[in-house]
Design brief:
By secondary structure, the protein is an alpha+beta fold. Helix content is 61%, strand content 12%. Strands 1-2-4-3 form a four-stranded mixed β-sheet. A hairpin with a 3-residue loop joins strand 1 and strand 2. Helix 1 runs parallel beside helix 4 and helix 8 runs antiparallel to helix 9. The chain is rod-shaped. The model has no long low-confidence stretch (mean pLDDT 83).
Length: 291
């Protein structure tokens, strides 16, 4: 089973003795399922069956379905004039002309008008219905292939964005080791500037630094973010309906990333946090198209 994009196109064709059917299905993303049929009223009797097939095969998306039919070349070239209609016309018009002493001349080409064609009987619908179902099945098969191909391309792109996010997270984790010393040096410099002539109790000062650093600790956020990244990778490499799972994990990653940014007092960490947010937004936008 593949991961499917909600964007795709499928086309199916079927031909009978007198008619050929073409079915085209175009899909785009939608939170739910939406079907729009464009076809002759001749097919109203099978519309529910067609909807049912789509319901069973796809979970989400907006579906635009077009079903058209035409006569086969063989049927078009066959002689379609109805002799009874011709005879009826002649028997009606000839006496009228003779009664009024008007010459009655008829050109054979006059009977090539559609008025003199044979009426299409109920066998037309009986022939068309199985052709509709056959072309629809073929279109669904092509659509699934199309959506699976688009889904694979999309997942590959999402993994690229996630790799960039993970790279930034690794940089932050590496900087975290230097964070205590950096903060101690920063606080010492500020205090020396403000309190030049006051002697500072070193042990007391270090206690305050530790307390301050505890409030800025981001170990938990980094660990949780790494867990969510691992889970997101797993979801992207799985199959089936993954769109909503991705959305949930992105919310969790966004929360941890924002917390890291709010606690950060180091420009390098803030820079990486900004890039991480950019990558999460790109993943979110593109993941909307996954089923």
């Amino acid at each position: 089973m593949s991961v499917y994009s909600m964007t795709g196109f499928g086309k199916g064709e079927a031909q009978g003795q007198n008619y050929s059917i073409t079915t085209e299905i175009k899909t785009v993303n939608n939170r739910f399922k939406d079907f729009k049929f464009r076809m002759s009223s001749l097919f109203n009797s099978v519309e529910l069956d067609l909807r049912s097939k789509l319901e069973n095969e796809f979970r989400r998306g907006s579906f635009d379905i077009s079903v058209t039919y035409k006569r086969t070349e063989k049927a078009v070239t066959e002689f379609q004039v109805d002799p009874k209609k011709v005879e009826g016309y002649l028997s009606l018009m000839k006496p009228v002309f003779e009664k009024n002493n008007v010459p009655f001349h008829v050109s054979p080409t006059e009977f090539l008008r559609s008025d003199f064609y044979k009426d299409e009987d109920e066998t037309k619908e009986k022939e068309l219905e199985p052709l509709v179902m056959a072309s629809f099945e073929e279109a669904i098969k092509a659509l699934k292939t199309s959506r699976a191909g688009e889904g694979k391309k999309l997942v590959d792109k999402l993994l690229e964005h996630l790799a960039i996010y993970e790279s930034c997270l690794a940089k932050i984790e590496a900087m975290k080791q230097e964070f205590p010393e950096m903060m101690k040096e920063k606080l010492t410099t500020k205090l020396n500037e403000k309190l030049k002539d006051i002697k500072i109790d070193e042990s007391r000062f270090l206690q305050e630094v530790v307390y301050y650093l505890e409030k800025l600790e981001i170990d938990e956020e980094i660990n949780r973010a790494k867990i969510h990244v691992t889970k997101l990778k797993s979801v992207l490499k799985s199959s089936g309906e993954i769109g909503r799972q991705i959305d949930f994990l992105l919310q969790e990653l966004g929360r941890e990333t924002n917390t890291m940014g709010s606690k950060s007092a180091v420009p390098e960490i803030s820079t990486n946090v900004v890039e991480m947010k950019v990558q999460l937004e790109k993943i979110r936008e593109q993941a909307l198209n996954l089923e």
